[in-house]
Amino acid sequence: MGNTMTFTWSQQRILVLSPHPDDEILGCGGLLHKAKAAGAEVFIQFLTVGHTTDRSSCLSSSPEERHIEIKQVAEYQQWDGWHIAFPGDEYHLRLDLIPRVELSNMVEQESPLSIAKLRPTVVIAPHRTSYNQDHQAVAEAAHTAMRPSNARLRHHPELVLSYEEAADQWRYDAAPMPNLLVELAEEDLDSKLGALQLYATQIHEHPHTRSEQTLRSLAVLRGMQGGFALAEAYHIMRCAA
């Protein structure tokens, strides 16, 4: 992370693989605002959404409530499109039950926002070290879907990243140090925190990995590591120049 590079976000078509509604904001909400403000196209592929019971202030949430939240966040951040691959409870928090070939085929070619149909220049997926089984399944499916091959026959996104969430360190084999820091302006972080507020069924009071204070603290830490005020951190899977 010792070198600084310039990346032109205005020319990018970005596809984010989000296991559940809110992961895209927790992992890369600041980057999405930064890129969209520069003129990029932003698309979100959600993998699943279903009934959720947790210890948030709302205690539980329905798919209908989550759909409303998605629409609010999509409008707030001005996404160009979004899609849910496996709606309903059958695979919600059970994506690990889907054979990897089926999950990777959805990401690679079957979804309306698949890599083959959308032809994104940037793909951002969860990191495989997440403790959450859905995140692990999506990370591995993304790895398979973007395997090296003849670029004349299969679309190869030029930049493939994995995003981090504050909870990803809760493992014996925690994620290694990220090797890409994306500088954020205050308005980028404000958009990230504002979007999290719109996921009202998912946000928590501090201390929690989905609290505003945690997201701000992580942005400050990653910024300091790059010599910035604020940043988001990523792991590079592919960077073709």
Automatic annotation (TrEMBL):
InterPro entries: GlcNAc_PI_deacetylase-related, LmbE-like_dom_sf. The keyword Transport does not apply. SUPFAM superfamilies: LmbE-like. The keyword Ribonucleoprotein does not apply. One of its GO terms (biological process) is glycoside metabolic process. It comes from the Bacteria. Keywords: Zinc. This is PIG-L domain-containing protein. It comes from Rhizocola hellebori.
